[in-house]
Amino acid sequence: MIALDGDCAPRPDLLWETIPYLATGRAQVVQTAHYIDADCRVNPLARYAGSLQELRFRWACRCRDLIGHVSANMGWVRDAAGKRSQGPLRGRATLYLPLVLVRSLGPESWATLTQQRFRQLRRSDIHTRSRIGSLLLLIPILVALLWWVPVAALLWFTPGDLDAWRYLLVAPVVVSLAYVLSVATHGWHPSVLRVVTVEALTQLVGYFSRRRSVDRIPKRVAIAAWLWFAVSQSALGLGVVRYLRQGHDVGVTWPVFALLAWQFAVLLPILVRKPVVALDGRYVLPTKPVGVLAGLIAVSLAALVFSQTRPVLDAAASAEPAPAKSEAARSEGATGLDGNLGRCSASDRMPE
To answer: For the chain, which terminus, N or C, has the lower number of CB atoms within 10 Å?
Structure first.
């Protein structure tokens, strides 16, 4: 029996490569890795989803190239075969082959992406097993969706503590997104953050809609995405307006403007069209998020320099020159207390 996911396509020589290992009688299951297609031949959404899946399976799972992931999440295949392959059974065991014999494709539309993630969530059913499982599921969701809350809290509740230099702590994150992840997986692009946000929203909706039909999930996720985008952008934008109306320096808020612009550039394209075709087969503005990121970094550095040099320039401009001494004051200082110009009193003379 051959078990394949619905989005996998085997190579023609799959049986030719695997049957000999079963013929030895030592293995009851032969499992191989599969390759996720994330090159330019597929549409942008499929490419981004493939890069994200490869990043997760290669570095976050127990084994590279999806072997550990398949071993952990495909127990239904072993149950259907009537045997368990967790360990040796009657002298036979599972044999993992370091061969890439299957190619996998990522979802190509909003509907397929949200439905696939919801099916994976419901199949794992980790949120109903224990409270720890619920906590482990909610933590990454909250991290992905509530990153803007600390900035909004500073703007609304403690605006005096806002300082542009504190945003330098997130510089490693920006650098890792732009460069490190491009090395860790192939096909990486800053727009992968769109897929991350969609998957986080799907998990959040699926957590509270476990018994709902799969067909209703895309619409529910679209509504949640619009609400999340509107709330986050409004909280940051109105917070900046309130901050400036209180008389604070505009140069301090340049990181907030950079975050707002980056979120607009990366996430708005998935909402400006119908949810089903928002990312289907076409680039939506911006076509070059890397250029947008470079422009934001340049503008941010310029704003940082301006915000730090402006107080010095204002102090220099407001400084008034010292008033010149009047003629009477100069005469008084030169005359001395005794009124004799250029002469010392008898008591001030040095003893002989």
So the answer is: C
